[in-house]
Amino acid sequence: MKRILSLVFIVFTVLSTNASTVFSGGIFSNTTWTLANSPYILNGSVVIFPGKTLTIEPGVVVKVASTSTNNGEQIYLECRGNLIAEGTSNKPISFIPETKPSNAFEQVWYGIRIKGTQGASAKFKNIELNNSYWGISNDAILYDSVRFESCKFSGNNYVFSMGVPLVLTDCEFVDNGVVATLMLQYGSATVNNCTFKRNGACFSTLSNGIEAYNSTFENNINCFLLMSGKFRNCVFKQNETVFQENGNLDIESCEFIQNKFAIKGFAGSTCRFSSFSQNEVAIIAEPGSIIQNNTILNNGVGIVLGGNSWVPAAGFDEVKDNKICYNSLYNIENQTDINWSLAKNCFCSIDSATIDAGIYDGYDNITRGLVNFMVFDSTCVQALQMVEKVQLNGPTGLSKINSAVNFKVYPNPANEYINIQSDVIGNEQFQLYNLQGQLLKSVSSEIGMASFDLTDLNVGIYVIRSSNSVGAIKVQKN
Q1: At residue 79, what are phi and psi to the nearest 5 degrees?
Q2: pTM (predicted TM-score)
Q3: CATH ID of 407-477, from 3.40.50.720, 3.30.70.260, 3.40.50.300, 2.60.40.1930
Q4: What DSSP line would sit under 345-359, residue for residue?
């Protein structure tokens, strides 16, 4: 008898495990989708009517029959009443296609739409939602937070399209089009310990901005676009662009690694105590940016000073106390016609010529302003020498370089002699200076041709000026 009862129990368990429920249509009374009857296969759209509640038990799998991508007839789960989908860490609730798409980015159903305008509410925890077009949407602005904890979203065109304060904790977003966007009237996000990988964009145009803590953003095309935000202890790795055309950013203690553009468009924002390495461009700073106490090493370009509406403060303290070193193209690229003092930054060399070779400014392009800098010792603590190319805040200081040079030099770099060809026929004086502003040599010309003998000079960077133009040309002695 005991063996027969055991056999009966085994058969019952197998039948329950293999049970499935096909469902579509309206939910007109309080309903529970149970684990025992899972998976639920939706072969048509489902609507939860006002005043009624659909509760989905932990571990339930909801499979959606596939339809053509975004053809207007996609299956959806619509909540006009109440939806409770709260799984557990061991038994998450899944909303997935009945047949797994061959393309991870294929959207084969509409998603979950919440009719907030009809008083609908929804609770989510430990859910997985894949391959929908609209993800989870709401047609009303909600001022109370909507929370998602330990959830996974993959292959959705949009994950969230609703004007609410989102709170995302311990969630994963992989291979989606956009995680959250177009909260134009109201909406924000608070992100804690989340992971974002291979998304087209993470967050864009959230009217009330974002706060992100202890989160990782990797291999995304755009992480943040057209928004404000606060970021602490986040890692940004191998993204196309992390921050683009944003404003009022507050970034602290973050890591930027192997991105194409780490910060692109950084007006009115602050970045402190963060590290940048192996990015093509670390920071493109625009007016109002504060860049302090960062480590910017081994990138293509360290800091680009962009935009022409800067109003440098006394002391030029917008960019200070940074370690800006070993960036392969330039440590500093000045794209403005403003003259800068970056004397409070360390460039990891005691050789002023080496430092100046890593600074692109008016010596390289007369439309740009000049950059003064300080030489520090190997500890980046003790100041050794101030290199002042232009006097700032003084009666004879130049505010702009506004006149083109009228001569060319060749070869550059040079080993022994450097030749000068001028557009001026007549008396013209050429001067050769070192980077400390000391006049080393002078030569006259009346036929538009001259040359300097460099054989007695040390290897390094020098500057040639003309008596007939304001600009200058930087030359290198090998």
Answers
A1: -110, 110
A2: 0.78
A3: 2.60.40.1930
A4: SB-S-S-HHHHHHTE
